[in-house]
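#onboarding

Welcome to the new folks! Below is a worked example of what a typical request in this channel looks like: someone posts a single protein sequence, and someone else replies with the predicted structure as tokens. Don't worry about understanding the tokens yet, we'll cover that in week two.

Example request:
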Amino acid sequence: MPHQNLALVGCLCILIGMFVSRAMMSIGMMLLISNAIMHNQLLANVKSYLKQPLWVGLGFYFILFSISILWSANTSYAIERMQIMLPFLVLPFAFHSVPITNRKLLDGIVAAFLILLCSGISWSLLQYFGNKAAFDEGYGVAHVIPTPFKNDHIRFSLAVVLGICFAFDFLLRYQQKWVRISTLFFIVYAVVYLHILSAKTGILLFYILAFCFLLFLVSKQQYRKWALSSLIGLVLLPIIMYAVSTSFRNKLSYVKYSISQMQNRELQPEVSDEGRLISYRYALDAIKQKPLFGIGLGDVADEMKLYYSLDFPGRNVIVLLPHNQFLMAGMAMGIIGILYLLILQIVLCRQLLQNGFLGFAFWLMMFFTLMIEPLYETQYGTCMFIFFLLLILQRRNVEV
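Example response:
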């Protein structure tokens, strides 16, 4: 069977599905795992897979939290969560069984991702400029412009930042003029868009990673002068964007307003940053009640609804899951869940650091997001994390 070709098609289905259809994401994942199961060396692949601690560790994350269905009252919600976490179990085995062994194929998958990002950004900007005044005004009350990923602007901003990291990786590895020009165009286009979109998570990550990347280049003699001059540009960039982008300016005004509201004693869940803090407090209270094994994956949402109904009776408020993946793990599986997630991040850090700056950037981006978002609680977040993690890890053992 043409396993390599089927793996490539499965990867492309997942990428395209991120932008146009969650069903296609699922189809791509099913194609990858079917490709692995139909391999004529299935038994040998299973044995070698079980000898890979990281692959098994990722799969055990799914198994560990699935066990909590045993003490979850809301089993239907638990099953829904398990479906979202399924990539932790199946994708590592699929990538291990049928690895993509050609660097050009891997780079081709990344290039397809950058092209899809460019198209998604263009679509989003068309929506924005089609009704610019209304959208600019909306940024003053925490509204944002439409984005791919079913308007999940936080995950889409993460994807844009990740695309910028991949583009810089291309710049360092390819000398062809057309590659450098096209990747530079993408970087500029994506950076401008990030400021127009003004998703706080994406903006913060961009500046953190850009600063780290320039420090990385300063350590290399051939890039030192360019890096130092770019550092000045990085400092000036937010000032320039503040002057030219109304949405960025209004977003900063809303952030200032949000911070001022957090300083009063009134709980305001509709204020985005304070809403995060409220979700943290509720999660910590729930963990204190059942610290060892948690309340069960299926009951997390119901428990959060209960806390909101007690503090805000009769008010129509948006119920948030804990906006921290570690606290989410703690509610579902107690201290055991938090410790396992932490150990997994430490192991991933050690593995990804062997993949140069791109590996470090990916780990830092995802770890930062885990601290302020329930990253693994949406199909986009889980699939993007696992898919690109495996893609980056596979680069170590590919042919040139």
